[in-house]
Amino acid sequence: MARARTPVVAGWFSEDREDGADGKGGGGFRLLGTRCTACASVFFPREDRFCRNPACGSSELAEVPLSRRGRVWSYTDGRYRPPAPYVSDPGRAWEPYTLVAVELAAERMIVLGQAAPGVTVADLAVGMEVEVVPGVLGEDDEHIWTTWNWRPVAELRG
What we know:
Elements: E1 4-7, E2 32-36, E3 42-43, E4 61-65, E5 69-78, E6 97-104, E7 109-115, E8 129-139, E9 143-152, H1 153-157
Parallel strand pairs: 1-9, 7-9
Antiparallel strand pairs: 2-3, 2-4, 5-6, 5-8, 6-7, 8-9
């Protein structure tokens, strides 16, 4: 039986994995946010009920794809298994991971995410250009739990 690709959080990213012939494409994997139609504030994670801008009282928000690329604002690594309520299999060896805070210039916001597999803190630098790519957070018998990762753009050309 094939396992279903299931987003960890529905509506936070597109599932379209295809790019255009030029590699930039109009589609492709994208984070999805919302933009207030009154004040133009952009939110991620998305907001679907009301504008979080305290100076705006609007409740009209539209889904928008966010920039695919940004610059590393900060990064760190997770070298130990977090305590409860974090969910993990204690019988499985802990594998360190890298977290990246990325500044999306067009949206003027910082988005946190895990680095793509194989990318460590040694591969990153503040100001480095990165791109959002599809990722897998975990798997079970029925699902492949999908998410987003950040990958250095130089890695795409290498």
